[in-house]
Amino acid sequence: MKKHLFPLFLLLFGVNAQAQQDFFAITGKQTQNITFNDFRAIDAVNGTSGEKVFTADSSAKVFSQARRGIVAEDKSSYGNSQAITLAALAYDSSNNNLVYMPMFSSNIYVLNPQTKEITLVENTVARVSSCDINSHITRMTTGYNGIIYAVNNAGTQFLEISKKGGQYVVNDLGIIKDDPSNGKNSFTAMETGFGGDMIADSDNNFYVFSASGNVFKVLTKELKAKFIGKIAGIPDNYSVNGSAVNSQGKIVIASAKGAALYEVDLATLHAKQLPGEQVLHIYDLASKYFVNDKASNINAMATNLDIYPTKVDEHYINVHTNKNMKGYIKLNIFDMSGKNVMTQDLSIKDTSVDEKVYLKGLVSGAYIVNITDESGKAIFNKKILVTR
């Protein structure tokens, strides 16, 4: 569902290849009913399908986290790894996995797209009832901190799915309530706020795109959903069922009813139809990108401060500054739980320089690089992925 200033390839082919690897969809069969067909890569710039990663007919090998072994699932149930009602998806870029949930079930599944192995996370926190549409989990995405988040239709459960000690752990963060200014555009009402999908921004807040086309900003600290408007430029009967951010920082939405993909400008909420396939049945979208990722680096860009690479397979990163910077800066690295795992002071000379910073003892995973100036003011934030 509902997934950094990642370097772009210079060639168009390179951009398309990248998009094929980090933008995914749950697609359905050519029917108006919800019937899962496959997980597939999506070219979210050109609106076309890529490789099918896993299908309803694939042979599924499911490992139970709780029972620590392979389990046999009832394929006729709503709570299996290939259930017909799959409608919530997130891309865990830290582990390169797809995390998803069936709509009528509390089960969480983690699919490795390369090995096709599936981990079942028996979730006792979510209170999902098959006969209560309010309780169904329909929105899911990865937060900027690398943790997976999911919300049910009515906003009465806001789930946090994190990985600790090699095990997935689920917490309920509470009830998301309407901002008083919402009026008739309620986040918790079926006609205005149910269904759809959500995306995250660089401040770890979320935007929920409801099936009706209404957009709400969810402030995680306050657990309030504020109505910010309705998408313009889509057909009146367009059901918004998937949303994700593409490699160009634009929001892409999709419908389960067999329709085209649209690109949405978050500032204006105006939608532009993408070329490519026009009758895709998409139940959810997921990517590794975030809304307003550049906003956190406004000061950094003004001073031409940057780090590279963001995907680290060596033992170091480079900190780039230009001749307009001088003095001292402090580099901090935080893990996804917010723990400071490394600090280093850097002296910036009155010249353009790339300073090599060795990453001491960092295990594979996602981290946030934070840089502060001499006064302690944060002037730079960027996410890196250590893969060595």
From TrEMBL:
Name of the protein: Secretion system C-terminal sorting domain-containing protein
Keywords: Signal
Domain (Secretion system C-terminal sorting) ranges: 307-384
Organism listed in the record: Chryseobacterium sediminis
Domain of life of the source: Bacteria
Signal peptide start and end residues: 1-19
InterPro entries: Secre_tail
Higher taxonomy: Bacteria, Pseudomonadati, Bacteroidota, Flavobacteriia, Flavobacteriales
Keyword Signal: yes
